[in-house]
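Researcher: Next sequence.
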Amino acid sequence: MLNQRYAAIDQGTTGTRVVVFGEDGKHFSPAAIAHKQLTPNPGWVEHDPMEILRNIRTCLSQCGVVDAMGLAHQGESVVAWDAQSGLPLYNAIIWQDQRTESVLRRLRAEGVEETVRAKTGLPLDTYFSGSKLGWIMRNVPGADELSRRGQLRLGTMDSFFMFHLCGTHVTDYNSASRTSLFNIHTLQWDEELCRIFGVPIAALPEIRDNIGHFGDVTCSGNTTPLTACIVDQFAGTYGHGCLQPGQMKITFGTGAFLQSITGTAVPDAQGSGLLPTLCWKLPGEPPLYGLDGGVYNAASAINWAKKIGLYSDIEEFSDFPDQPAIARGLAFIPALSGLGCPYWDRSAAGLWAGLSLETERKDMLQSILEGIAMRSAEVIYAMDKVRPIGDTISVDGGLSANLYFKQFLASLIQKRIVTPSNREITAQGVALLARKGLGNAHAMNVSTQQVTTEPAKRDLSPYFAKYKDIISRSRNLRSE
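Model: Next structure:
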């Protein structure tokens, strides 16, 4: 047992990587492969699932012998495939894809959103899987016929990968809870929800605990059990050690993804704009629930600023004056893909307010960081009202390396920000779960080193109130 090794498959939005952990917590990443981003129409985002499957196999072939594997995946992205051939009927439709917005507007007009919220905790938003699978059923040739013959397989991307790697059509409770088709109270696929979105329930995968024996993976002549599966953001939550009510983490990636733990009962988040969510379920235990809130644009806003020529080197996002840009009257609303939690408003658009002849590029860059922090603070405040969170928040992702950003956020919310020194926090969560799924109960020796950012004793609340007013002006700006 002392020499056991665990491979964490981290299949994300832009690429696939594998990180191998030993019992001593030491780890290495033998391979990482990016995949193509396909955008056939404005607002559409697709991936080739067979390309990603090949990338997973290639990464695993570089691992050597391991004792167990775990899979973290994109979450709400979906695939449809033929059970006999194993081939996808269409590209994977990715969580960022907005092609179903008109369908969701119709469903809102029909008054079904409250039914969906009550059963799933989720709003009607293109972010989630149900409307994407319904689009496939209506628009992809052969899907309906395969369904009638019992040959159609539908699911989030984990189920497609496990079908090919393990020969099983399965998913886990956490992944299922992100689809808008899973009832978080009954812990089952829901017939009424499937009818609302036009998804055949018989084509959906079997739902299992987040750890256990999902099947065996054969790679380079070695057969290894796959013992954990979870959405990448929640793998990060587990990797951060956020396991108890009141603990919270934020991952700053393409967007900002905030999760807090609330306990073993579904939290009452009515009217908050937050998403009650099932974080994970372990064998013989009740599910652990939490609150989830997404800000659509974080690193994507930084990348956009580079695209339009505001900076050329990421080092330019440093050495800002102590006075915030918003104190000088400049504010940025990072609604480049709309406003996520707590608004869930795709009609909102990005907005700068307070521009003047004195505004310089450096001011605009500073305001972008502050805008992402302000949007994150909105979600934190909302979570704190539903279930008080502790005085420390753990963060990871690209923006967690920016000292100004962390200091501004810590001072704004008056909470300590900690950043784990281990940058493989998502993979660490997967490895810990895979290890637990193999039956190892004693603790693995993982690094607890972290960088702490203490809040400054300054009152930024007047600026937050001003920011909230500016946010209201960003809404209903986007044409349909």
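Model: The first strand starts at residue 5 and ends at 11. The mean pLDDT is 94.
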